[in-house]
Amino acid sequence: MSRSAPDLSGRPTEVVQRLRIRFAKRGRLRFTSHRDVARAFERALRRAAVPLAYSSGFTAHPRVSWVGAAPTGVASEAEYLEIGLAEARDPEQVRTKLDAALPPGLDVVACVEAAGKPLADLIDASVWSVRLPGVTPSRAAQAVRTLLDAPSAPVEKLTKSGRRTVDVRAALVSAAVTPEELSGVGPEGAGGGASDVPKSDCAILSLVVQQMTPAVRPDDVLAAFRSVAGLEPRVPPEVTRLGQGRLAQDGLIDDPLAADADRARPVG
Fold first, then answer.
1. CATH, domain range 17-114
2. How many whole angstroms separate alpha carbon 242 and alpha carbon 240?
3. Where are the domains positioned within the chain?
4. Does residue 212 have a pLDDT over 90?
């Protein structure tokens, strides 16, 4: 990430305030890679004159931490990063200025002062909405029952360490067919190009997936539906992440930006 005005003495810039930011990746911006999203935020932080703190060393880096980026091609209403500031700022003013400096489709939803546990410790699950054009809700519901009843659902995936097998069933906390009006996804979230398939032939799945190593993503869940239940949509699915957070005992997701992170606050 480029630097606006780091301390060139080699000494780290003191972090006097940490801010946690939730942003959305909507419309055509869902095809933007995480690297390009990071670059867009880099430029926006400079334009918004956010006083970032920097690390020490010859190549000082801004204090910016990313958590759980959505895959390229997937829309999201819940992407997170944390920034360290060298000067204290009002979080709402940072949100407003940063949102104005970002391109449409990268929208800053919330900005709060960080407190308590690190952000990464507050996120261990995601809520996903998956539109399946060409699949009827009844067919999708049958596939959901089959997958949930399966003792395991091994899927092979390609990782940085080579091909690995993951048990999708072990990571899948819940799955259900959701009416469109309750899915939480509008046309802009699905990518701005909502399918012309009739609603009767477009099932919407709501998934809660717990983090594992390697990560289980919606395409892995769809691969499990294909292998275990024979469900294979003819049209590419439209995936949106609705929330990230810590999985509570009741299956809900705690909001990582909530002031009291130990209380269940469903997101998505």
1. 3.30.70.580
2. 6
3. 17-114, 122-254
4. no
